[in-house]
Amino acid sequence: MRAAVLGSPVAHSLSPVLHRAAYAALGIAGEWSYGLHECGEDGLEPFLRSCGPEWAGLSLTMPLKKAALEAADRSDEASRQVGAANTLVLSGGGRTAHNTDVHGIAAALSEAGAGAPRTAAVLGGGATAASAVAALHRLGAASVTVLARDPARARGVLEAAGRTGIAAEAAPLAELERHLEVDLVASTLPSGAADAWADRVAQSGAAVFDVVYSPWPTALARAAAAAGRTVVGGFPMLLHQAAAQVELMTGAGPAPVEAMRAAGEAELARRAAPAAGE
User: Fold this and answer.
1) Going residue by residue through the chain (278 aa), what tens digit of pLDDT does each one get?
2) Residues contacting residue 27 through CB under 8 Å, at least 6 positions apart
């Protein structure tokens, strides 16, 4: 059986390492393969049409998450709430969309002891921010403030909040300091984009979740850790969302999370080694 991750750019993806480690631990590595394919939005439907019965599923990263949901015949509740999917399970000629990012974020926060925030500030206005809002609702949060450089571009995140039932408002990212009386600050911004606010977030007392996993730690994570705050990085999210994908695609479970964690951490250490030696 075959599976793969699609996106653009995708060469840096850690998904092949995680999924292949799961196959090895489950004893199915001889029967299952997991690949990596560069694919933009225009290429998704042609790729899907080319998939034969040997294809079990696809992991989708940017910019394919909304297109993946649109390409599906069926969808789970999380993908409908978020308005985006990161997983397509292919079975019997059909396509079922799932959003395992929501599970990944909730599991990562819970694992770190930060799984009961009542209020949060979510930085960013894209699909991952929408997944963060849905995860926070799942964890029992009552309200979120979504902070984006252009609040108008956070409309999709607010719509996702409305579908979950969590109270949400949007504000300019430049006004972050006015919205730091929260239990959790969740940054879904690209690497380096939250650096300017690192010290102010650290001083706020909030726990910090940063979706970046490489390079790690980010300036935001370092500042928060130095201030004694709970810090959750992007790798645990990636790990737990991949574990859910393995279960969905293979039908085997539970996924071997610790074997996947060890493989992912080893790969991240390998990637960081050249920089450390400079």
Assistant:
1) 999 999 999 999 999 999 999 999 999 999 999 999 999 999 999 999 999 999 999 999 999 999 999 999 999 999 999 999 999 999 988 999 999 999 999 999 999 999 999 999 999 999 999 999 999 999 999 999 999 999 999 999 999 999 999 999 999 999 999 999 999 999 999 999 999 999 999 999 999 999 999 999 999 999 999 999 999 999 999 999 999 999 999 999 899 999 999 999 999 999 998 755 55
2) none
Q: Give 38's strand partners.
A: 7
Distance CA 184, CA 112 (A): 13
Judge contact between 128 and 189, C-beta under 8 A. Answer: no
Give the burial string for 38-75 (b: 16+ CB within 10 Å, else e).
ebeeeebeebbeebeeebbbbbbbbebbbbbbebbeeb
Active site residue 65: yes
Active-site hit among 3, 17, 32, 65: 65
Strand intervals (E) in 69-163: 74-75, 87-91, 94-98, 119-123, 143-148
Does the predicted TM-score (pTM) go above 0.70? yes
Domains annotated on the chain, with CATH: 2-100+241-276 (3.40.50.10860), 114-229 (3.40.50.720)
